Amino acid sequence: MDNCLFCKIIKGDIPSTKVYEDEFCFAFRDINPQAPTHILVVPREHVASIAEAGEKLSPEALHALISAIGKIAAQEGLNNGFRVVSNCGPDACQSVLHLHFHILGGRQMADQMA
Ligand code: AMP
Ligand code: ZN
């Protein structure tokens, strides 16, 4: 999608710190990290949020996204655990309307999620 920040990052039109890529996914470091490790995992295909991912992404792409999260966590040495968040819509303060999973780790997370 032309006017999407994460589509531009995937294409390389906007620079990012890539940590992983495969046929279906791209992952890069968040520009404003909320934890020692903060990575965004996105599908190459533009979908706005997790609300429409099940309908619009292929089973292969959905599987690749979940697999990528585990591979990246291992690659980053998050052996003591990590948190995965996908903000969806205004109530969750989603700011970029291209589905993304935040991987947060490297410190003890708050007991309360929100
Ligand atoms: P969300 O608020 O869940 O939509 O998350 C969007 C995330 O994208 C935020 O954590 C931002 O810090 C991050 N972000 C925005 N622009 C960039 C960028 N150019 N490179 C990497 N991360 C970004
Ligand atoms: Zn996009």
Q: How many helical stretches?
A: 3
Number of strands: 5
Mind telling me the C-alpha Rg? 14 Å
Low-pLDDT residue intervals, each spanning 5 or more residues: none
Query: What distance separates the N and C termini?
Result: 31 Å
Going across the major beta sheet, what is the strand order?
Answer: 1-2-3-5-4
Strand content: 15-25%
Could you state the order of secondary-structure elements as H and E?
HEEEHHEE
Average of per-residue pLDDT values: 98
Shape descriptor reads: globular
Name every ligand kind in the structure: adenosine monophosphate, zinc ion
Structure write-up:
Helices cover 27% and strands 22% of the residues. The chain is built from 3 helices and 5 strands. It has a 5-stranded antiparallel β-sheet with strand order 1-2-3-5-4, with helices on one face. The radius of gyration is 14 Å and the shape is globular. The mean pLDDT is 98. Bound molecules: adenosine monophosphate (AMP) and zinc ion. Zinc ion is lined by residues 1, 4, 6-7, 46, 98.
Fill in the keyword field for this structure.
binds adenosine monophosphate, 5-stranded antiparallel beta sheet, 22% strand, alpha+beta, binds zinc ion
Summarize the structure.
The protein has 114 residues and is of the alpha+beta class. The chain is 27% helix and 22% strand. The chain has 3 helices and 5 strands; from the N terminus they run H-E-E-E-H-H-E-E.
Task: Please give the structural blueprint.
Elements: H1 5-11, E1 18-21, E2 25-29, E3 37-43, H2 50-56, H3 59-75, E4 82-85, E5 101-105
Antiparallel strand pairs: 1-2, 2-3, 3-5, 4-5
Bound molecules: adenosine monophosphate (AMP) and zinc ion.
